[in-house]
Amino acid sequence: MHSSASASASASTDTARPPRNMRWRVVDIVVASVIGVAAGVVFWLWGLAWPALDAALAFTPGLSGLLAGGWLFAGVLGGLIIRKPGAALYAEVVAAVVSMAIGTQWGFTTLIWGLVQGAAAELGFALFLYVNWRLVAAMTSGALAGIAVGLLDTTFTSIAALSFEVRAVYFVSAIVSGIVIAGIGSWLITRALAATGALDRFASGRAARAAEPDDPDAA
Description:
By secondary structure, the protein is an all-alpha fold. It has one domain: Arp2/3 complex 21 kDa subunit ARPC3. Helices cover 70% and strands 0% of the residues. It is built from eight helices and no strands.
């Protein structure tokens, strides 16, 4: 009887829960833009540090793919915080534009990479129908962004001229970096921000603070 009553209460709660509003609000645009601009500055700084970091990983050719996540987190972070279709793509593209405007050494190709990486990160959340924002969704988004940058770099950059073995190491390293830096890293940042109350105007902040284990929006 108790289990019947619990099931009824749960069903009633699910029915009462209002459908998610996927339309963007002004605050969504503003915060997604702030994420993109801040990430763009990080992208630019990451680019400055890249030669030294790349040299430090030279003991295994191709291992520099582990650095790719430093340019992938904007999309995953934007998606996790805003929780609206298009947020991951928007944040990653804004970040790419900002880093390009500041003066990245890769010029206009930065925008192309940003578009592809952002679309891949977006796909990661779309696969979960924009209702699951847990760690697995963040890791999936990061992994797909890593696959995207791995394909781009091993096809259209100087890495394409290297041996198959080196390209394979780079490709796998980029995916790992996407999962760890962009995926897990962005998920942890989102949780940390939510804990401060900074995200209370967003579903991501409310879900994390409410800590409802059965809520598909819970972090």
